[in-house]
Amino acid sequence: MWADLGMNLEMHDQLCAVLPGAIGDVFMSQENRPECMDYFDMVLADVHGLRPSELVEFRKNGGKVFGTFCAYVPDEVIFAAGGIATGLCAGSQFWVPGGERYLPANTCPLIKAMLGARFDKTCPFYRLADVYIGETTCDGKKKAYEILGTDVPLHVMDLPQMKRPKDYLKWADEIKDLIAVVEETTGNKVTEEALAENIHKINLKRQALQRLYDLRKNENVPISGTDTLLISQIAYYDDPERFAAMVNKLCDELEKRVADGVNVAPGKKRILVSGTPMAIPNWKLHNLIETSGGVVVCEETCTGTRYFENQVDESGKTMDEMIQNIANRYMGINCACFTPNTARFDDVVRLAKDSKADGVIDVNLMFCQTYDIEGRSLEERCKAEGIPFLGIETDYTDNDAQQLKTRIGAFIELLG
User: What's the rounded Cα separation, in Å, for the pair 248 and 237?
Assistant: First the structure.
């Protein structure tokens, strides 16, 4: 399969060779894991085989795959046209050198990894996507999309940078443009019936994730933050109906754990993580926190609450009503690309209180200017609310791991 996709098999073998060790060190070393994590462990262990093989068969039967990079791209539209939306990986240092052949070194590692994964031909998801769907969430991505667009068909959605009434209308127009792209690519019409059906389907996935996150609010934490992060990462590319079913099955087990008083992190300090996305396989900060006396009980990130909070209103009957409802939901995501963005500070405070967090650790990927600049204002807001705060800047390497472990450990000790 990988050879048929035109992948660099030698480099891909190098990438896959380190995965079993990473899985063992990060996940299997945890104690008292829920049994229903078996499904997500299986998906991770066969990350470049299980879902890609399904996409290969889908394409053989004439289906079209759309690769996405961001929580703002509405999956509902793609599935309504009979396509499949899949997130594209960008969380490994392995891909960064390949990206640096095209981008300055002082570019966010996530963006460099995007280009490295495509041009080094080491990720099957990048080879399987017939069209990439980008978005204007940062200047680095916008320029990177210009480079990616020389090698693969690419459509960029122009995300407004403010949240005025006219911006919500503009985003609805962008969704209409996306519908035209997916209709042309798939050869299928997005009907009112299909769009309504897929709004409901993606809402069910969001509801499953919300249920999972609500269970982490309990005094007895039934699942680690590291395991939850993996689930959130898988949400971007797994089949949405199967994923929702498996998350709900896990939640059934977690509810029993809560009732039985099972706690995976007794005596550990509860931490909310905020900041930049943690694309698979980036588990660095969660692993450091949870091996330094803390347990992550919530993530205010794009691989956390921003991905699933708030449903699309399902009351729309006409195409225009449904599109505007989709636009309203996605514009409710509070990314640092917006100005002003005080609603994100409100989210962090609300989530910290709801999850009974003892402190907030704000994580910024190196050279991500928007989140870096917001960090100071977020710290001031948290301090005003009496919430202990630690700001961290890092990348995908392990060069700073020991230093960060020391800082995180000291912060957790200060929480008492």
Answer: 17
What backbone torsions phi and psi does residue 138 show, to the nearest 5 degrees?
A: -160, 160
Residue 260 class from Cβ within 10 Å (0-12 exposed, 13-18 middle, 19+ buried)?
Answer: exposed
According to DSSP, residue 35 is labeled T
∠ CA 277-280-283, rounded to 5°: 80
- Summarize pLDDT for 221-237 with one digit per residue, the tens: 999 999 999 999 999 99
Average pLDDT over residues 279-295: 97
155-203 tens-digit pLDDT: 999 999 999 999 999 999 999 999 999 999 999 999 999 999 999 999 9
Instruction: Characterise 108 by phi-psi region: left (phi > 0), alpha (psi -120 to 50), beta (else).
Output: beta
Distance of CA 345 to the CA centre of its chain: 19
Amino acid at site 292: S
Q: What is the mean pLDDT of residues 395-400?
A: 97
Task: Give the confidence band of 406 by pLDDT, cuts at 50, 70, 90.
Answer: very high
Q: Which residues pair with 189 in a beta bridge?
A: none
Bond into 340 cis (ω within 30): yes
Q: Which residue's entry shows tokens 């079913």?
A: 245
Q: Do 326 and 74 meet the contact criterion of CB atoms below 8 Å apart?
A: yes
pLDDT of the residue at 98: 97
Residue 323 has pLDDT above 90, yes or no: yes
pLDDT value for 62: 98
Helix (H) or strand (E) run with residue 269 in it: strand 269-275
d(CA 35, CA 256) in angstroms, rounded, equals: 12
CA 27 to chain centre: 18
* Tokens of residue 268, six digits: 């550990």
Give the H or E element holding residue 14.
helix 9-23
The tokens describing 136, both together, are: 């204007």
Closest alpha carbon to 337 in 316, 368, 300, 308: 368
Three-state SS for 162-205 is CCCHHHHHHHHHHHHHHHHHHHHHHCCCCCHHHHHHHHHHHHHH
Instruction: List residues bridging with 393 in a β-sheet.
Output: 364
Residue 368 clears pLDDT 90, i.e. is over it: yes
Structure tokens at 44: 């991770």
Closest CA to 415 of 225, 271, 218, 273: 271
Distance of alpha carbon 68 from alpha carbon 131, whole angstroms: 9
**pTM, rounded to two decimals:** 0.97
Distance CA 357, CA 161 (A): 30
Q: Is residue 137 within 8 Å of residue 288, measured between CB atoms?
A: no
